[in-house]
Amino acid sequence: MKFFKRHKKLSIFLIVLLILVLGIIFLVKQSEKAANKMLQAMNQSELGEADYRTIRSVVATTGTIESVNVASVSPEVNGVKVLEVKVKEGDAVKKGDVICVLDDTGLLEYLKNAKSSLTATTTGNNISLSSANRQLENLLAEKERSAQRFQVQIADAKESLDKAQKQADTLLQTYKDAKSKREDLTNKKNQNNANITAYDQKVQELFVAIMNWSGDPQSEELLAMQESFQQHQAALEGFQQQAIGLGEACTAASTAEQAAGDAYNQYVDSSLKAARSTYEQIVQNSEDTARNYENSILSAKDSLTSTNLNTENSLFNVNQQVEQYEKQIAACTVVAPFDGTVTGIHVKEGDLYAGAPIATIEDLSAYQVCAYIDEYEIGRVKVGQNVAIKTNGTGEEQLQGTVTYVASHAAQGMGSVSYKVLVSLDTPSDKIRLDMTAKLSIIETEAVDTLTVPFDSVGTEEDGSKYVEVATGGKDETGKDITRKVKVETGLESNYYIQITSGDLKQGDQVLIPKSDSGMSDLMEMLYGEGGMYGF
């Protein structure tokens, strides 16, 4: 006690030091317990549940809210004065409301001159067309009259040819009859001559037999030969007498045949030939004339077509001028193309309008999202896909949209290969404003009410097959969950879940989600090491 009294300050210091050491020891022990609990928790694996969910594969990107209908109002007119601007930025306008009025005085004078030119051109064209039509009609009428004349001439010539042919046929038949008669007489003459020869020979044979008869002059045989001789002699004389008449008849028949043949040949070579030549010549003349008329008519038709084209072209050019001036005059009264809001005025009264936009009008009742997607993802995006949309202006509210346009060519000036995509905003919201940033989830594929597990719970074997570890409900000595390995096949994947398409897995099964053993556990081992934290 004396020591503490004598060394009061030292005692106080030692007491404070002791308290500090005891406090540090206590804190280290408490920290060690907390660290052990943390290490134990780190070594514990998390469990997830197999359940039926809707899973989606999405293309995520950002875009900008813009109006579906945006118009930079630029009337098709140049070099005219701005007379009056009737709206200001922020004004709501209806379709057809007048935005600006331009000076059309000069255009009205141009229109007047163009209409006068149109009248003169129309009159001249009508005269040219009438002349070409008249020429064609005259040729058609002349062709018809010529055809009728030739029809008469051809009919007369054909009639003459038919008559000549009929006469030739008659002469030919006369010749054939004469020839037949001559041939018949010749045959008879030849037969008579044959009879003369035969009977003459028989008479001579009988004469010799009678003269050389040495038997009884009164025998019946001799008498029979003498009688036969007389009969043949009488017949011979008759045939000889006929030969004279037949010879004369044959000569007359030959003469008649020759005359008939000469008459036929002469008629064919002269009259029939002339009639046929006349007929053929008239037919040829008719065909040649018809062909010439046809060529002339074709030329007249070509001329009419050319005249039509020329008149149409000339009228088109003049009409185009008239329509252009009328269009420009109408354009001098600049109107809103649709209901919307004026978001920009780019001219003022007294300006000389040179073709730039006069005003910008946007329809604030219909929005869309414009986004640009890089070349690695654009192949997954198709028109018609559903889109989930979020904006800062609408908070956690998820809006619905649809892909309405996918560019086929990359956008210029983007710095990378990106393609423009437009998404309709199908969910109405009064919180939407132009130029807001929109977060898009373009749904590529979707599986509704399908069995899924947490993405990280699926492992891969060395052979590439997939598996999950299903908790059995028990714990080992270290407190870890006891599991069994289940082979599975997977389908659609999202950022959080993966679809199970087959395997011995059912709804409600608890599946192991492995945790990394590195990181915090390594830190704890380093802190504690041998001898405890900080060596205590």
Q: What labels describe this entry?
A:
alpha+beta, about 50% helix, disordered C terminus
Description of the molecule:
The chain is an alpha+beta fold and 536 residues long. The chain contains 5 helices and 20 strands. It has helices at residues 2-6, 8-43, 105-211, 220-331, 520-528; strands at 46-49, 51-67, 70-73, 80-85, 92-93, 98-102, 333-335, 340-345, 352-353, 359-362, 367-374, 386-391, 399-406, 418-425, 437-454, 459-460, 466-475, 481-493, 497-503, 510-513. It has a 6-stranded antiparallel beta barrel. A 4-stranded antiparallel sheet has the order 3-10-8-5, with no helix packed on it. The chain has a 4-stranded antiparallel sheet with strand order 7-6-4-9. The protein starts with a helix and ends in an 8-residue tail after the last helix. Residues 1-5 and 517-536 have low confidence and may be disordered.
Q: What is this structure's SSE topology?
A:
Blueprint: H1 2-6, H2 8-43, E1 46-49, E2 51-67, E3 70-73, E4 80-85, E5 92-93, E6 98-102, H3 105-211, H4 220-331, E7 333-335, E8 340-345, E9 352-353, E10 359-362, E11 367-374, E12 386-391, E13 399-406, E14 418-425, E15 437-454, E16 459-460, E17 466-475, E18 481-493, E19 497-503, E20 510-513, H5 520-528
Helix pairs in contact: 2-5, 3-4
Which consecutive residue ranges, at least 5 long each, have pLDDT under 50? Answer: 1-5, 517-536
Q: How would a textbook summarize the main sheet?
A: 6 strands, antiparallel, barrel
| Helix content, binned percent | 40-55%
Cα(first) to Cα(last) distance is 32 Å
Specify the number of helices.
5
Mean pLDDT across every amino acid position: 86
Number of strands: 20
The helix/strand class is alpha+beta
What is the CA-atom radius of gyration, in angstroms?
65 Å
Element order: H for helix, E for strand: HHEEEEEEHHEEEEEEEEEEEEEEH
Percent of sequence in beta strands: 25-35%
How does the overall form come out from the CA principal axes? elongated
Task: Strand order, main sheet: write it out.
Answer: 2-11-14-13-12-15
